[in-house]
Amino acid sequence: MDTEPCWRTVADLPYYADAHAWVFVPASFQLMVLELAAAGYLDLRVEEVAEAQTTEFYAWLRRARKPLHGGDLQEVRKQLMDRVVVELAEQSRQVAASPLNGLRSVEARLEAAEMQRDAAEYRIEAMRIVLEAARASMNSRAIDRRKFQGLIAEASRSIPATGPAAVQHHVLLEEASRILGLLTVPAGDGGAAPRQRTKRARPGEP
Questions:
Q1: Structural domain includes residue 98
Q2: In what helix (H) or strand (E) does residue 61 lie, and over which residues does it extend?
Q3: Domain limits at 108?
Q4: What is the pLDDT of residues 77-128, one digit of tens each?
Q5: Is residue 198 included in any domain, yes or no?
Q6: d(C-alpha 70, C-alpha 35), whole Å
Q7: For residue 121, what is the enclosing H or E element?
Q8: Do residues 75 and 116 both lie within one domain?
Q9: pTM of the predicted model, to two decimals?
């Protein structure tokens, strides 16, 4: 039985033999080059790898392999094997029937939940700013409206105008307006009663 590897037979052919049936991800290609160079079959090293659209990638090879021995070689092997697993999982997402595609909806829900949590934390922080401004504006009798408005305006200037944190502007305006509204007592709801106009009686009128 002929035990000569097929690739040696193909390598000795006088014409070009296409070998595009091989399938790699970037890390598995780098691992193959590493192993062939370590075994002495290649005097090449992978200089650079760049991913292209869909599942393709480009690799630049350079002569003169980088000598690695013992623990160093094993460490590079392990790093590349770990990357192979990750890159295969990433590429499998492009297949419609891949079970990993179900993770996308889970990831989307987690992302939405994180956004809601961040928004809630920003709203709580804005409420804390309003309460601290009200406490700092309080004197012996009531809240100093001018000081309170100044503290809210100062806090607002430090809040971003865009992004998740921008929700604090709405909370500051809403809660500050509510507090200022409570400080205004409508006529007839406590305080001095409105004056009544008296009508003078004309001669002959009761």
A1: no
A2: strand 57-63
A3: 104-183
A4: 999 999 998 888 877 776 666 666 666 677 788 888 999 999 999 999 999 9
A5: no
A6: 13
A7: helix 102-136
A8: no
A9: 0.43
